Amino acid sequence: MTDSTIDTDLDEQWEDDWDDEDYVFVPEDRGIGRKFAYVGLVFVLIIVLVIGASGYWLMNQVNPSGGKGEQVTLVIPNDAGLATISRLLEEKDVVSNATIFRYYAKWKDISTVKAGEYDRLYVNDSMDDVITRLNQGPIPPKFSEVTFPEGLWLSETGVTALAAYPEMDPFEFAGVLTSPVR
User: What SS3 state is found at 138?
Assistant: First the structure.
């Protein structure tokens, strides 16, 4: 056998053994730049999704979905700062997150909040409505008139006052009546 016949035999054998189903397409390597571009694009998409989800969550904290709930009365004590007020609002379920409310109130440049009793606050209220209500100030204290006729003894004055204000503690009231004026 000659070399040409061996080559021909090998070519025929190669063509017989070749099957298109065993063929695998291997794409050419496009380079490292394209790989970095894909990784960068995925990274940017993840950042955009995280920022979008965070913004959506924050907007739901500031303006919660659903309507206002039941009306709540809040008593703000003397010397209460914005952190204490935020915590009290969260405990009454007026705002959903005290920390977010505190930062939002600072961003909205809330004026000082006066101590007192606040009504017209609602469960699940928007933070803008809560800030508006707090800026309006507390409800005025309730006054009622009690007439003390002249010539009553101190003990009779106490009975008249306690009849007008049944929620008053009689022992505390007696202590106030007998204490020296300062």
Answer: coil
> Which 3-state string (H, E, C) describes 55-115?
HHHHHHHHCCCCCCCCEEEEEECCCCCHHHHHHHHHHCCCCCCHHHHHHHHHHCCCCCCCC
Count of H-run helices and E-run strands, the chain: 7, 2
Residues of the chain with pLDDT under 50: none
Question: Per-residue pLDDT tens for 121-150?
Answer: 999 889 999 999 998 889 887 777 888 888
CA distances from 3 to 6, 10, 26, 137 (A): 5, 11, 33, 108
pLDDT number for residue 173: 76
- Amino acid identity of 138? P
pTM of the model: 0.60
CA–CA dist 94, 122 (Å, integer): 6
3-state secondary structure of 53: helix
